[in-house]
Amino acid sequence: MAAKDDGINGVLHGKYELGRQLGHGTFAKVYHARNLQTGRNVAMKVVAKEKVIKAGMMEHLKREISVMKMVNHPNIVELHEVMASKSKVYFVMELVRGGELFSKIEKGKLREDVARSYFQQLISAVDFCHSRGVYHRDLKPENLLLDDEGNLKVTDFGLSAFSDHLRHDGLLHTTCGTPAYVAPEVIGKKGYDGAKADIWSCGVILYVLLAGFLPFQDENVVAMYRKIYRGDFRCPPWFSSDARRLITKLLDPNPDCRITISKIIESSWFKKQTPKSFMFE
Ligand code: ADP
Ligand code: MG
């Protein structure tokens, strides 16, 4: 049985039959599963409590659950139920079958209209989260899944924050996320606005979709951080002028000058319509 290495038998809580592994992260493995009562296929994220406790991340795990219950949106992976055993926590989630957006980029850059459609869906999800005071804080192509119809679904709220976690100065103070996608002010440790930091990560994602490579790269992490701080990147020649303009506003190293979601939505690059048929060419 696929999930034996987790100490799980083939059938979980007499309700879910576990199948093949779909993916993994730092604390979790995600499996295909089937609800034996309804026949419905789901994704089962299995989190090892011990690892989470050792890393001092139990609060994050609890937050991940409460956030996922709150954010019901067509571009966010739906959480059906949460179960727990002595050693594990199980997230029963909507199954997203098309894999990670990451694997699309591994094959090379995307066409501008295809990238636009994904970016529009990403912004729709992020806008929804922010309107509810939720900041994802780990937006990257590995946490963006695609369904059979080319719809994008944001997942992994394991590092997310609520706006009530802001300190008296109104700013978040935890450094988290993945280096290449992290905003300069998050590295800076002076406190940051979670919404603006998410917008920066969306800018890195848009760049990667259009370029096929990262805007800020260096084998040395310190050198990479320096580039992020300075907003030191170049757009490849194939970016359209509208795309360039938007990316430059998204990747503004000064969070106070960075574009807001409402302005992103108004921008001429964002507003163009993408025929759905393009997604499958
Ligand atoms: P972690 O918090 O450990 O990073 P994630 O929630 O990101 O775990 O899940 C790890 C991987 O499992 C994802 O990158 C993705 O490949 C896969 N995965 C997660 N959720 C789903 C889902 N609902 N449907 C299909 N695959 C999923
Ligand atoms: Mg993840």
Q: Let me know the average pLDDT.
A: 90
Structural class by secondary-structure content: alpha+beta
What is the percent of helical residues? 25-40%
Flag low-confidence runs: 1-7
Give the radius of gyration: 19 Å
**End-to-end gap:** 36 Å
Strand proportion: 15-25%
Question: Total number of helical segments?
Answer: 10
**Sequence of strands across the biggest β-sheet:** 1-2-3-4-6-5
Globally, the shape reads globular
Strand count: 10
Q: H/E element string?
A: EEEEHHEEHHEEEEHHHHHH
* Ligands: adenosine-5'-diphosphate, magnesium ion
Please describe the biggest sheet, giving its number of strands, its sense, and whether it closes into a barrel: 6 strands, antiparallel
Question: Which SSEs are present, and which pair or pack?
Answer:
Layout: E1 11-12, E2 16-24, E3 28-35, E4 41-48, H1 49-54, H2 58-70, E5 79-84, E6 88-94, H3 101-106, H4 112-131, E7 134-135, E8 144-146, E9 152-154, E10 161-162, H5 184-187, H6 194-211, H7 221-230, H8 241-250, H9 261-266, H10 268-271
Antiparallel strand pairs: 1-2, 2-3, 3-4, 4-6, 5-6, 7-10, 8-9
Helix pairs in contact: 4-6, 6-8
The protein binds adenosine-5'-diphosphate and magnesium ion.
